[in-house]
Amino acid sequence: MQWMGRVQNLFAVFLLSACAETWGCPTECQCIGRVRVTVYCDFKDLEKVPENIPLETTHLFFMGNKFRQVVPAMFMGNVKKQDGTFLPEKGSLDQLQVIRLDLNPITIVNEHAFDRAPSLKLIYLPFDVKIQRQAFAEMKNDKQTFDGFTRVPIHPLEDPQFAAFSKF
Q1: What pLDDT is recorded for position 135?
Q2: What beta strand segments (E) does 5-66 contain?
Q3: Which residues have CB under 8 Å from 75's CB, separation 6+?
Q4: Which residues contact 79 (CB under 8 A, 6 or more apart)?
Q5: d(Cα 147, Cα 143) in Å, to the nearest integer?
Q6: Using 50, 70 and 90 to split pLDDT, how confident is the model at 144?
Q7: Residue 108 exposed, middle or buried by CB count within 10 Å (0-12, 13-18, 19+)
Q8: pTM (2 decimals)?
Q9: Class at the top of the CATH hierarchy for domain 2-166
Q10: pLDDT tens column, 149-162
Q11: C-alpha distances in angstroms, 122 versus 15, 110, 126, 137?
């Protein structure tokens, strides 16, 4: 009988750890982590960024949705309380390092689009997207480099459906 109690305790610990992964996450998405959060909102038919993106987000996956443009408001998160609920106040996603926006019908990246994500190191965009001049602080004339980012070359065997830019 004592082993039954241990099994129940282990099951309770498992359930709590599983819930911790999704603690404080948009209902449309899945989140992993608390200190460094990865948010998966891919292939959800989203037309706009859902509410309650945690400020601690480091990786944001929005592939395969219905976003038509990239705007600064996409990189705003909500302040999370101790109980996992969110306050209405918004803040910049200062820890965001990777954003995947490929496989969206995005036609344009608006001016200053990434200003609210200062730690961004890797950006995936649809291949034929138009990037406005001030979308990145210092777009170069060659359209291959800007503000410390370099366009990742496409491998001949890859499907060129997206363009990637990297600071790595």
Answers
A1: 64
A2: 30-32, 37-40, 57-61
A3: 92, 93, 96, 99, 113, 114, 115, 116, 117
A4: 55, 86, 87, 89, 90, 91
A5: 11
A6: low
A7: middle
A8: 0.69
A9: alpha beta
A10: 665 555 444 554 55
A11: 34, 18, 14, 15
Query: Do 47 and 66 contact (CB within 8 A), yes or no?
Result: yes
Distance CA 156, CA 54 (A): 37
- For the chain, the domains span 2-166
Contacts of 126 (CB under 8 A, 6+ apart): 101, 102, 103, 104, 105, 106, 161, 162, 163
Question: Residue 60 pLDDT > 90, yes or no?
Answer: yes
Q: Hunting for tokens 């990189």 — which residue is that?
A: 75
In 12-157, DSSP assigns E strands to 30-32, 37-40, 57-61, 69-70, 76-80, 86-92, 98-100, 108-109, 122-126, 130-131, 145-146, 149-151
Q: How far apart are the first and last CA of the chain?
A: 56
